Amino acid sequence: MCELLSVVDRFNAELNRITPEKRDEIRHITKVAYDFAPFAVCIMKSIINFTRKLFVDKKLIGIYMMDSSIKCPHEVVSEYRRLFDKELVNLISETFQQMNFELRLSLYACRRTWKSIFSDSTLERLNRHINAIDPAWPQQFLPRERCSVLLVVLF
């Protein structure tokens, strides 16, 4: 139990050092998350709690931290994908509701990169949930080359 608390405290301290000006620190903290793979559930919860406590204009930092932990090539990435898959709809929905238009566009851009990472059913639930909050959120995503036209028309 002491080791778990120590790991979580150390990881939380790393998270708290991230600033918008130092987004490159996200890669470093992702490596720390992978080093703490035996505690992946706690690390995932730390990232979610970190995102929730951030001021609205900083919430993308938490989303980018999650995004990095599910994308960087590493043998434990599948575990982080599995864990975040269960929490994705709630986390993104909560975050989306608090964001302004500009931040929502950035969240949308990030979401478009998850097709090969999360299950279709999770992404469909996410799209339906966000679309219920904001009908401008597409329920199905078009190929990337049509994205800019879609954003102009819908937003």
UniProtKB/TrEMBL annotation:
Q: What's this protein's name? A: CID domain-containing protein
PANTHER family given for it? PRE-MRNA CLEAVAGE COMPLEX 2 PROTEIN PCF11 (PTHR15921:SF3), PRE-MRNA CLEAVAGE COMPLEX II (PTHR15921)
Matching Gene3D superfamilies, A to Z?
Answer: 1.25.40.90
Biological process (GO) annotations held by this record are: mRNA 3'-end processing; termination of RNA polymerase II transcription
Residues forming the CID domain are 10-131
Instruction: Write down the species.
Output: Panagrellus redivivus (Microworm)
A single GO cellular-component term on record:
cytoplasm
> Which GO-annotated molecular functions does the record name?
mRNA binding; RNA polymerase II complex binding
Q: Which superkingdom heads the taxonomic lineage of this protein's source?
A: Eukaryota
